[in-house]
């Protein structure tokens, strides 16, 4: 008789545990797709389309992830900054080379 009561008790505990786990974690059905963040387009535009200036670099905001900032966003923005700096440096080198040539020709002209 004792084993029957133990078996019924174990079944009740198992049923209760199954119910609680299903209530907490769900039944495994698919969830509806997450809604898009209403600020996502504005955020992407800030990162991808705004001109890169000293003022805009200081105001850029990245989305947070589990371990800090979203690395893909940061990497893309750093690539844009690198490209902008290269263009600037190439423009500076080109204009300084022109100025150097232009200045030396004026000095040698009598």
TrEMBL record:
InterPro entries from the UniProt entry: DivIVA_domain
Compositionally biased tracts (Basic and acidic residues): 99-110
Record region (Disordered): 88-110
Superkingdom to which the source organism belongs: Bacteria
Name this polypeptide is given: Antigen 84
Lineage: Bacteria, Bacillati, Actinomycetota, Actinomycetes, Mycobacteriales
């Amino acid at each position: 008789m004792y084993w029957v009561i133990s078996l019924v008790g174990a079944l009740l505990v198992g049923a209760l545990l199954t119910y609680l786990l299903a209530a907490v974690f769900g039944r495994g059905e698919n969830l509806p797709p997450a809604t898009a963040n209403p600020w996502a387009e504005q955020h992407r535009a800030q990162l991808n389309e705004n001109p890169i200036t000293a003022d805009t670099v200081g105001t850029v905001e990245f989305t947070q992830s589990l371990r800090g900032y979203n690395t893909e966003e940061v990497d893309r923005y750093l690539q844009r900054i690198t490209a902008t700096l290269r263009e600037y440096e190439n423009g500076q080198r080109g204009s300084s080379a022109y100025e150097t040539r232009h200045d030396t020709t004026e000095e040698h002209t009598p």
